[in-house]
Amino acid sequence: MASYVSHLECAYTGQRYEADGLHTVSDAGKPLLVRYDLGRLGDEVQREDIESSDEPGFWRYSPLLPVDDPADRISLGEVITPLVSLERSAHTLGARPGKVLVKDESRLPTGSFKARGLALAVSMAKQLGISHLAVPTNGNAGSALAAYASRAGIRTTILCPYNTPEINSQETKAQGGDTHLVNGLIGECGRIISEGSDEVGWFSVSTLKEPYRIEGKKTMGIELAEQMGWQLPDVIFYPTGGGTGIIGMWKAFAELTELGWIDCKLPRMVAVQSTGCAPIVRAWEEGEEFAEFWEDAETDASGIRVPAALGDFLILRAVRESGGFAIAVSDEEIHRMVEAIGHEDGLLMCPEGAATAAACKVALEKGMIGEDDTVVLFNTATGLKYPMPAVTSLIDKDADIDYGLFGY
Ligand SMILES: *Cc1c(COP(=O)(O)O)cnc(C)c1O
């Protein structure tokens, strides 16, 4: 059994590589993209075959994924994540009720969309016979790697900056990851991992330093298309850190178009960052091809606290080709949105997801998007992993109860 993969390709120079064997980055030091024989795939697989698949979650898109043998697919019971429309909180955004949909990725195993990318990276590691994986992480990548690798019987070493939220390092350890804190930032964790590759023999699945996490994240785009009846929204707001998701979705739309499975206008892709760490926004505003390192990165939305992205030029390309834009919002705006959407619509957003809502509000106010546009926001993780408001009210059961307290 073989996949439809034809070769790998340097995303910058176009240089071709054989698909077999271990790959990190290209000779130019840039990400490698997986290419498929879409002609043969289109002859042998129809859209209807996908629709009638009973594989769990994104594994229904296996013809467009690189895993050869179904036995190597590592699954933890993935689901098709729902599109939940903002109704009452739409007013807070200045949007029409029902026009803004949240793709709620918090429902995936380990509570974040990192499951998509790491499921693919781990499945390919299994296919390629890798026995030890390592990753530097601010949180969600570590727990997703630990979970899928444990299930595959693969060892993991996970390095987190010392200020990683405890819940993230702990969930990682609880799912079998050999987890260490490092008294530095994510870049230092990455350096230790790449320098240790020869010494220890682990393989790094650091963002875009291997070709397969993008393929997993690509399934967000295919899933969205199928879910919308092979149509796409007018605008996608995506919380952008390393950019795997925005790059992956843009790749998905190109492949689906080439296959003829979609035939619609592609969405405008909006890269959302925090004003405390906005290298992509700065590069977009200045018309640069690459983004400069962002000094002193600081935001509560840890998933998008990424001062330098290896795929910067690919993120910027997707934004520009799609007629989208890049926009930064403050942590204050983010926290206000977490509260508004939780209170008004009962949906607990993670700060990264709330950033997309805050950006959508600004874009509507400034006329960067229209109120007739159908908009999809990505809620990339569960809000349960982040600090929540404390409950401070204590009622004394033995005293007279003041029912005025509850409001009537
Ligand atoms: C990793 C992460 C992001 C950023 O994802 P990329 O696709 O790498 O840009 C956003 N939100 C959360 C919660 C994350 O864990």
Automatic annotation (TrEMBL):
What cofactor does this chain's UniProt record say it requires?
A: pyridoxal 5'-phosphate
Q: Which residues form the Tryptophan synthase beta chain-like PALP domain?
A: 74-380
Checking Pfam families in the record gives: PALP (PF00291)
Which BP terms in the Gene Ontology apply to this protein?
Answer: isoleucine biosynthetic process; L-serine catabolic process; L-threonine catabolic process
Sorted alphabetically, which keywords does the UniProt record give? Lyase, Pyridoxal phosphate
Q: Which SUPFAM superfamilies match?
A: Tryptophan synthase beta subunit-like PLP-dependent enzymes
Q: State any single GO MF term.
A: pyridoxal phosphate binding
> InterPro entries attached here?
Ser/Thr_Dehydratase, Ser/Thr_deHydtase_PyrdxlP-BS, TrpB-like_PALP, TrpB-like_PALP_sf
Q: From what superkingdom does this record's organism come? A: Archaea
User: What's the name of the protein?
Assistant: Threonine synthase
Native source organism of the sequence: Candidatus Thalassarchaeum betae
NCBIfam families attached to this UniProt entry: PRK08197.1
